[in-house]
Amino acid sequence: MRKKVRLGMIGAGNIGRIHLQACQECTGLEVAAVCDVEKRRAKQAADEFGVPHVFTEYRKLLAADVVDAVSVCTPNNTHLPITLAAIRAGKDVLCEKPIAMNAREARRMVAAAKKARRILMAAQSSRYTPAARFVKKIADQGRLGQVYYGKALWLRRSGIPRGWFQDAKQSAGGPLIDLGVHAVDLMWWLMGRPKPVSAFGVAFDHLGRTGQGMGDWGVGWNPGKFTVEDMIGGLIRFEDGRALSLDISWAAHTADQYWLRIFGTKGGAQFLPETMLYHSDGNTKLDVVPQLARDNHYAAENQHFVDCVRRRKEPISPGSQAVVVMEMLDAVAKAARTGRMAAIRTG
Ligand SMILES: NC(=O)c1ccc[n+]([C@@H]2O[C@H](COP(=O)([O-])OP(=O)(O)OC[C@H]3O[C@@H](n4cnc5c(N)ncnc54)[C@H](O)[C@@H]3O)[C@@H](O)[C@H]2O)c1
User: Could you tell me which CATH class the domain 127-295+326-343 is placed in?
Assistant: First the structure.
């Protein structure tokens, strides 16, 4: 096993800083470099978190031989080139969600990692929460029976992130790819990863394109540049008849609502707004509110990545599974665009 993994943080914006903070709780890891095209942001993060090397170009970081692995925390359209370059330079990669702009890009990343025998882990952080880890254990023990349906209702009233998130060329989409990626990934994983075959979708942009519903984070709104959806509905069907449904918004005239449930033949589980398990004993309803340990799931995610790098083992959220998640998201987006059911051909 390696001594300490030297990690390079590429992107020191919102999530990059969250990872830098989380890494302080990890063992077997030292953050050796931080890189951001905005020098001031990279320097500030390095000073704050005690990181010795600062770069503004990721290629220079990769060439400098100061890191063993990188965390890709940059806008979605940069995940592919940065990950490919990192793999070529012999680095293991933790890549933020969505792993890429679409399934085609994701497949290229996975193929490159496989060929170079590098670890490619998708930062599907929802899998690392105490609630997800607990419900996954319950589901794998068969205590929910067969989970046949999952539903996510994730409605922000006024939460459009600013800057690159609104530009389809940089983000690939709105709430579907930003929030839906978590919901789809989590529910599909809990269901035991059934094979998706088709999807329907409807998407709207009434508020975003007229400057309504902006959130209070990000780097400013550029009118005319809102080229993604602000609300989306989707239904994904699996080969065996099971399904997932989604209603997700960045902006909508409604109350904020976060609600995520899976339904099984023996029991059900809810994640949001709080974790609950639903079972029955005859006519008696058994509702359980697990008292979960509180931990920082970003620290759990980074610790898991480092453990996988040191022990050369496959992560809980490997790039190969993120490819299937992207295939489902691509299909919902395509169905919304064309008004027709979209077939999903995995593999
Ligand atoms: N897992 C989660 O919970 C979670 C939460 C937020 C964001 N994200 C994901 O993380 C990624 C980044 O999102 P964010 O909110 O931090 O965005 P952000 O805009 O706050 O930060 C991105 C940073 O990347 C820098 N950057 C851009 N191009 C670069 C390049 N070529 N090289 C180096 N630095 C570059 C920018 O200057 C900026 O500082 C996105 O893919 C997003 O979907 C994940």
Answer: alpha beta
